[in-house]
TrEMBL record, chains A, B:
Signal peptide: none
Protein name in the entry: ABM domain-containing protein
Segments forming a coiled coil: none
Organism: Paractinoplanes tereljensis
Pfam families for this protein: ABM
Amino acid sequence: MRINHGFHATMNAQPGKGDEVVALLLDAPSLPHPDCVVFLVGRSAGDPDVVHVTEGWTSPEAHAAFFATAPAQALVAALQPLLAGSAYSDEVPVGGKAF
Amino acid sequence: MRINHGFHATMNAQPGKGDEVVALLLDAPSLPHPDCVVFLVGRSAGDPDVVHVTEGWTSPEAHAAFFATAPAQALVAALQPLLAGSAYSDEVPVGGKAF
């Protein structure tokens, strides 16, 4: 299995900011990164300000190295004022299909 | 967007049954179905008996029609004795990448 690190995040956007959060995530620098195997963005059907992302990386070290880069920190900085809170679970992708 | 229906499920397997649940899901008849756009299986890093699946379908009707088929009901029947419980959220995949 190529994935050795992952998580599922649920982000609560500030009211009305769900669209901006989704747009930022769909343009995340994680997506073209070769160590990022899964980056699935989702959204609550009932509350457009609840946004989810499931990530799977080749290793914790690869994710940490990416997270320290300027593009990753720029995304964190752009998201921060748009979010009221977030919660993580230790879900690690193991297989299936997506986009 | 091709996806108009989806959910995120967290299944608590009976103790020690997580491997069997994951194996059944990775062989699910949803995977080759053309109306199933996303079917991402995940697992808790901390508890191998906690299994997740994120699904995205072209429409609620397509999912309902699939769910009524014999292969889908056979999967439900195979999973049922392996599970202690499950919980759903209304997460609908909107984009990203995976396997």
